[in-house]
Amino acid sequence: MCGKYHISTEDENISFREAIAQLMLEHPEITLQTRDVVPSQLAPVYTKAGLAPLRFGRKVDFMSRLLINARSETAHSSRMFAPLLRTSRVLVPAQAFYEWSPQKKPHLFAREDGQMLYMAGLAFPGEGLDDFVILTRDSVGRPSEVHPRMPVMFGSDELRQAWLEQDNLAQALLLLEDETRYIDCQQAG
């Protein structure tokens, strides 16, 4: 499960850095979390309308902690997630994501090519700001050596655009194989 991820504006992705700066100018009342993002924090997330501040995690009555993930395989049949899958899809940008081994050791995974990750998410309408959860799938590649689940990610611009804009393709996009190669940056601490 993805309960923590890393995002930075300090790399060479100038367009992302500029988008974050613009978002902070448009919303001076909020503090966006960069570096390590954990549940309950505000983070930059791509919606159909562009980059927006959303809160990671959703408070639901039947859980004592925040709901942070949704299983991609069952989202389409869930009373909670199916309506969001049809209309409220988001992309969560990150440089890397954390997964924990059975021994509770964190591992930080990034794309082998160093490009940004775009995790599939669902947005819940909130009071003031929306909340989001990250969709997960069975792990593949390096992450599968550490944890059985990982975020659903879209590697190409075409897939990312389709995820945000093509309501009729959402369920099918979740079934696509993830052919991205990931590296375990370190045993994060």
CATH class identity:
Alpha Beta
Estimated helix fraction: 10-25%
Number of self-contained structural domains: 1
Query: Could you name the ranges where pLDDT drops below 50 across 5 or more consecutive residues?
Result: none
What would you give as the CATH superfamily? SOS response associated peptidase-like
Instruction: Report the sheet-strand fraction.
Output: 25-35%
Q: Overall 3D geometry?
A: globular
How many helices in DSSP terms? 4
Report the structural category: alpha+beta
Tell me the major beta sheet. Answer: 7 strands, mixed
Q: Could you tell me how far the N terminus lies from the C terminus, measured between alpha carbons in angstroms?
A: 18 Å
Order of helices and strands: EHEEEEHEEEEEEHHE
The CATH architecture is Alpha-Beta Complex
Q: In CATH terms, what is the fold-level topology?
A: hypothetical protein yedk fold
Radius of gyration: 16 Å
Can you describe what's shown?
Helices cover 17% and strands 33% of the residues. By secondary structure, it is of the alpha+beta class. It has a single domain, classed as SOS response associated peptidase-like (hypothetical protein yedk fold). The strands form two sheets. Strands 3, 4, 5, 6, 9, 10 and 11 form a seven-stranded mixed beta sheet that branches. It has a five-stranded antiparallel beta sheet with strand order 2-1-7-8-12, with no helix packed on it. The longest helix is centred in the first third of the chain and has 13 residues.
